[in-house]
Design goal:
Blueprint: H1 2-25, H2 27-48, E1 62-63, H3 83-123, H4 125-133, H5 138-174, E2 178-179, H6 185-207, H7 225-252, E3 263-268, H8 274-290, E4 296-299, E5 309-316, E6 321-322, E7 325-326, E8 329-339, H9 343-346, E9 351-354, E10 368-372, H10 373-379, E11 389-391, E12 400-406, E13 423-427, E14 435-440, H11 446-456, E15 462-463, E16 467-468, H12 469-512, H13 514-522, H14 527-557, H15 560-563, H16 572-589, H17 591-599
Parallel strand pairs: 8-13, 10-12
Antiparallel strand pairs: 1-2, 3-14, 3-15, 3-16, 4-14, 5-8, 5-11, 6-7, 9-12, 10-13, 11-12
């Protein structure tokens, strides 16, 4: 036992000395490895912590909160799904894209570690041969590599872990909603994988037997696929973020909608029956009009953002066929909106045919409905729905009469495109919900408006303090903006990690061309022509990466409009600046090594 302890002590000591000598001899690649590990942990951990909910290993943890609990308090055909369902589905879609971006960043970081590790192994190959020649065992080389990896990794591991956890906390706090509890499985997996790859790039060269190369055998040029992948991954993620933030900016632009600086208050009417709630809303609208506020709208929650409650409608189509069968009655899912008489004008929704909802459409009047153009054109005979019947569930056995057609509306809220395009608008006085949004466009002091609303609502009802219309719009768009910024930050992290790997790889790539450079020089090629030849190859690699990003990015970008209405699946103005910057950066990374290789003495080119 004593003999073994004495034999291990020199091995550890010599391994540490060899590791320190290797770091002092080749500090550049050691620093690059440390920076890569630091950047990878800082860029991967914050996003990885957004996954691994307690009910699923890869489930997205951020969730949206429901503004009003329950449904509208009205009976619907075959149940009802509120706006919260569509919003959660949209968050799930974008969360899946964030997960793909995380894997892309992790893959780029691994390739960068391998590229820099290959460069470091190339630098230390002569030192390892000398050590082997003077009798160093493979165990001694392995101990030196272990000590070297530990010395390089200790500081980046601590700083990267602390930075990643701090960034994860900041990202979770910036989410406009709640974050479900998680297990941290994805973050742990990503961290362990990075550490394993980091150790492997330093340990594997110490374990490998060097292959003898014949005198006439030339080094083959390194494959450029890793660089193409790194460029494509960064370009895809950056472009996705740019398109989401661009759409969020459009939605927040004052001219993007009919918003004109009004006030929105969420009201909840505490009345037992639908008839009593109808009377309460009627009294509220009349009281606000008497107070001098004549641009007032009462809608079901989500309507102002283009969201609604999804339920089945039954349409009296007439002489209609579907799939070769005569079906005079159609059952279709549609988004339901409860509106007042001034809603269409205030939200800028044009009336295409018939009439809209009027104050006369109260509780005692026959039930009426207004349908969207898509529902009118496809689910009624000859696209003529006016005068025909439609059943929304909350009406008598005879249903409602369609009295008007409005344009299809493009939703602004997250999840609007997940809901059916078909839309039905009914009167708030005939289908009074328990909770509603009150929009007032007339200039009014929020405190005075709040007191006025509370005085007009029945006892026990709640009228929340009015907020500015722009503030409510910003809250609706906040989640879209959050995703856009996360994609952009993740994209820049991916590009930064790729830049380190490309810098190391392109140097190795130029070095692998020495044999071909020697042949070209020997047959009379000039140095300038060789330099331009290598730069042209680098430019081609960069263009291949951008082209690969376009090819594979379309599959990811197509998912953006399914979650965010109006988001572009491809926008040249958003992606072109990133493509230009990436191509320029990759091309510049090869200038110095290409210049040195083209100016090297001819004897060194073989």
């Amino acid at each position: 036992m004593i003999h073994r302890g004495r034999s291990r002590s020199p091995t550890v000591r010599i391994g540490l000395e060899s590791a320190l000598d290797a770091i002092r001899t080749s500090p550049t690649t050691a620093i690059l490895l440390g920076f890569t590990l630091l950047g990878a942990l800082s860029g991967v951990i914050p996003v990885a912590t957004l996954f691994s909910r307690s009910d699923g290993w890869l489930e997205f943890r951020p969730t949206v909160q429901q503004a009003h609990a329950g449904d509208l308090g009205l009976p619907w055909l075959m149940g009802v799904a509120g706006p919260i369902v569509a919003q959660r589905e949209a968050v799930s879609i974008l969360g899946s894209l964030i997960l793909y971006a995380l894997w892309a960043t992790l893959g780029v970081a691994i390739l960068t570690l391998i590229s820099i590790g290959a460069a470091r192994a190339n630098q230390g190959s002569s030192d390892r041969r000398v050590r082997r020649a003077v009798g160093a065992s493979r165990r001694m080389l392995l101990a030196a590599a272990l000590a070297e990896s530990g010395a390089i990794a200790v500081l980046p591991l601590v700083l990267g872990g602390l930075t990643g956890l701090a960034a994860a906390r900041a990202i979770a706090q910036s989410w406009p909603g709640s974050v479900a509890g998680g297990t941290g499985a994805v973050a742990g997996f990503a961290t362990v994988l990075l550490l394993v790859v980091f150790a492997a790039v330093l340990l594997v060269p110490a374990l490998m037997r060097r292959r003898r190369i014949g005198e006439v055998e030339l080094h083959r040029a390194l494959p450029t696929t890793p660089v193409v992948f790194q460029i494509a991954a960064g370009f895809i993620v950056l472009s996705a973020g740019a398109m989401l933030t661009g759409r969020a900016g459009e939605l927040l632009t004052p001219g993007a909608s009919a918003a004109a600086g009004g006030s929105i208050a969420a009201v909840s009417v505490d009345a037992g029956t639908a008839r009593e709630r109808s009377a309460s809303y009627d009294r509220l609208l009349e009281g606000l009009e008497v107070a001098g506020l004549d641009t007032v709208s009462v809608t079901s929650p989500g309507t102002l953002a283009g969201l609604g409650y999804v339920a089945t409608v039954v349409t009296d189509c007439g002489r209609c066929t579907e799939g070769g069968l005569w079906l005079p009655i159609r059952l279709k899912p549609a988004t339901h909106h409860v509106v007042s008489s001034d809603t269409f004008r205030l939200i800028g929704l044009p009336l295409l045919a018939g009439r809209g909802i009027t104050p006369a459409d109260d509780w005692n009047a026959p039930r009426v409905a207004v349908v969207s153009r898509s529902l009118a054109g496809r689910e009624f005979q000859n696209g003529q729905p006016i005068g025909r019947r439609i059943h929304t569930g909350d009406d008598d056995p005879e249903g409602s009469t369609v009295v008007g057609v409005v344009e299809d509306r493009s939703p602004t809220g997250l999840g609007g495109t997940v809901q059916p395009r078909y839309a039905v608008y009914v009167s708030v006085l005939q289908h009074p919900p328990r909770a509603a949004d009150l929009l007032v466009r007339d200039p009014a002091d929020p405190a005075i408006l709040d007191r006025l609303i509370r005085s007009l609502l029945p006892h026990g009802s709640r009228g929340y303090a009015p907020q500015s219309e722009q503030g409510v719009r910003e809250a609706d768009v906040a989640s879209v903006l959050w995703f856009g910024r996360r994609f952009e930050v993740q994209g820049w992290a991916t590009i930064g990690l790729a830049a380190l790997g490309i810098l190391a790889f392109m140097g190795l790539w130029v070095r692998s061309l020495e044999g071909e450079i020697g042949i070209r020089r020997s047959v009379g090629a000039r140095r300038g022509r060789i330099f331009l030849w290598m730069v042209g190859h680098a430019l081609g690699i960069a263009l291949k990466g951008v082209a690969a990003g376009l090819w594979f990015g379309i599959a990811l970008w197509r998912a953006l409009p399914t979650a965010v209405a109006g988001a572009a699946s491809w926008d040249v103005s958003q992606a072109l600046p990133y493509a230009f910057a990436i191509v320029l950066g990759v091309t510049c990374s090869v200038l110095l090594p290409a210049w040195r290789a083209s100016r090297a003495p001819l004897i060194r080119s073989y």
